[in-house]
Design a protein that fits this description.
The chain is α+β, with helices and mostly antiparallel strands and 593 residues long. The chain has 23 helices and 17 strands. Pfam families: PolyA_pol.
């Protein structure tokens, strides 16, 4: 009897990579044109807006590339072991089952990429029934039986048929029977029936994802007759007519864009026309949940070529469908915001590539570099709308960026908060950059920081001001500095720049210079600085019995004092505070008299 487990949705389980073995088969070389997308330079600042798509520097639509497609699938030792076990199960029970690996694994293998995402399609039984037979065979062999996870049909998550999952030699394998799908006019949820291998291939989203690897025959099966050809051409197309495919399931528009961007492939002409169709755009906005749209966008932004993906979304007229804005904006959105947003993303991508991955280094206590990069790119993309607000149901003024992240894409609330905070801090960094570069407004800033109880030495004004900003933004300060360097040309004189590359170099040097200044001031990690005195100790010195605004103000002064006296001790801090309290008493007496 098999074990039945309730497993979390796919993506939350740990996928263990198979053992790797060098591929030795001779690749075939084909020529294709990279994704052709019109390019428009930004006019709002002079950073070069190049169609940069990654470390290789290949630009979409500007240059031909070679797509290497292997003649056959080259299995790793672990994959050979897994497939041999599955065939043993078929032979032992006389099942007569044809086992086919479907979809992305086949595509990636033919492109020479490793993949641990093994989905097996069965022609004569359900996935759960086959998994139970695997366990029976394991028992027959005197081996431990594995738990079977059954993922129920969930159309809202694009799961239209029950899937069984189990560990085989430490690799998670999904099993599902072949199927055909028929869609109702007003729903993206299909009627699913058991189908043939060809029907299963034809109902797939893209031709390059419709290939099978038949484990029984060890052959690649291209049952649409176009999968291999399109892979060789570097072409993104649908097995059936694109418009009907997209109307059946409009989410496939975003999947097509994501794969085109990931592999720098070209979108087929018919597919682009279908994706730009007003009815398809309307269906994408009305039939697909915001969670599913946000998930696809997040995959694009976290992938290797997010600029290409956002360019496609813009050029296909999908920007305002994907990134839905709230009503009653201030100031109102206009039809060029899509170009501004994507141009900012392109500029950020170029500048980050020029500076290097250190931009996304926030210290050991912050998020990973990949996560920081993702948040930085979202911040850059939505920089042009950072000063837009709307009124929520409680008549509260809310940043539009927060709405897009939380409601339009249904991403984490913490993502929205972080991106908004990066935008706010980037404006403060603009003033700091000016201060660090030229000492301009130093006395004015000193007057803002000083008060009747605390006078900050002029040579420490920079440290105190920078420290206050960093304590607010914490481990994301490099991202805020980066966005500030990207957005604010007024912090330096860019008008005399002889060329785009020169301006890019200037902004890179500005970023590096300010970063060095902050680290030289020993402020990286200043947000971890603990107050020398807590609220209770301050209340004792001030001789008050309860807290309130007075204690809050002294806590703010205390932070400034510690920033101005990095080597200061608790005793010195208490002495300063006592003297200040006595001074306050004298002033009150003088006022009375």
């Amino acid at each position: 009897m098999s074990l039945r487990l309730l497993l979390p949705p796919r993506g939350s389980l740990l996928l263990l990579s198979p053992l790797r073995r060098r591929h030795t088969s001779r690749p075939l070389h084909f020529r294709t044109t990279a994704a052709g997308v019109p390019h428009r330079a930004s006019s709002f600042f002079s950073i070069p807006i190049r169609a940069f798509t990654g470390v290789s520097g290949m630009a979409a639509g500007t240059h031909q590339r070679s797509v290497e497609v292997r003649e056959s699938v080259e299995l790793t030792e672990e994959e050979e072991r897994i497939f041999a076990r599955l065939l043993d199960v078929v032979r032992h029970f006389g099942l007569g089952t044809q086992l086919r690996v479907a979809g992305g694994w086949v595509r990636d293998k033919l492109l020479g990429k490793d993949s641990a995402d093994i989905d097996i399609a069965l022609d004569n039984m359900t996935g759960q029934n086959f998994c139970e037979r695997v366990n029976e065979y394991s028992k027959f062999m005197g081996e431990e039986q594995k738990g079977i996870g059954v993922i129920q049909c969930n159309p809202d998550q694009s799961k239209h048929l029950e899937t069984a999952r189990m560990l085989i030699y430490d690799i998670w394998i999904d099993f599902v029977n072949l199927r055909s799908e028929k869609y109702a006019e007003n729903s993206r949820i299909p009627t699913v029936e058991i189908g043939t291998a060809k029907e299963d291939a034809l109902r797939r989203d893209l031709t390059i994802n419709s290939l099978f690897f038949n484990i029984n025959t060890k052959l690649v099966e291209d049952l649409t007759g176009r999968g291999l050809e399109d892979l060789k051409k570097g072409l993104i197309d649908t097995p059936l007519p694109a418009k009907s495919t997209f109307l059946d399931d409009p989410l496939r528009v975003l999947r097509a864009i994501r794969f085109a961007a990931r592999f720098s492939f070209t979108l087929a002409v018919d597919l682009k026309e279908a994706a730009s169709d007003e009815k398809v755009k309307s269906e994408l906005g009305s039939k697909i949940s915001r969670e599913r749209i946000g998930h696809e966008v997040d995959l694009m932004m976290s992938d290797k070529h997010p600029v290409n993906a956002m360019r496609y979304i813009r050029d296909l007229g999908l920007f305002y469908v994907v990134f839905a804005f709230p009503e009653k904006l201030g100031p109102p959105v206009f039809d060029k915001h899509d170009w501004l947003c994507v141009s900012h993303l392109e500029a950020a991508w170029n500048l980050a590539h020029s500076i290097g991955r250190s931009v996304f280094s926030g210290g050991s206590d912050s998020k990973s570099q990949d996560e920081q990069q993702r948040l930085c790119l979202y911040s850059a993309l939505f920089t042009p709308v950072r000063n837009m607000f709307y009124m929520d149901k409680k008549s509260k003024k809310v940043p539009v960026v927060s709405y897009i992240i939380r409601d339009s894409l249904k991403l984490k609330a913490s993502d929205a908060d972080t991106i908004v905070n990066i935008h706010v801090a980037s404006e403060k960094f603009a003033e700091l950059i000016l201060l660090l570069e030229s000492n301009e407004n130093l006395e004015t800033l000193k007057e803002k920081l000083d008060d009747e109880y605390l006078e900050i030495p002029t040579d420490l004004v920079k440290r105190v001001f920078a420290g206050i900003i960093l304590r607010e933004i914490k481990g994301f300060w490099r991202l805020a500095l980066f966005i500030s360097t990207l957005v604010y040309p007024e912090v330096g004189n860019a008008s005399d720049s002889p060329g785009e590359q020169d301006e890019l170099d200037k902004r890179k040097e500005r970023y590096n210079s300010v970063e060095r200044s902050i680290t030289d001031l020993d402020l990286d990690g200043v947000w971890k600085m603990k107050p020398l005195l807590d609220g209770k100790a301050i209340m004792g010195i001030m001789q008050v019995k309860s807290g309130g605004p007075l204690i809050g103000k002294w806590q703010q002064r205390l932070v400034k004092w510690q920033l101005a006296h990095p080597e200061g001790t608790m005793e010195e801090c208490m002495e300063w505070m006592k003297q200040s309290e006595q001074q306050s008493k004298r002033q009150k007496i003088e006022c009375r008299s």
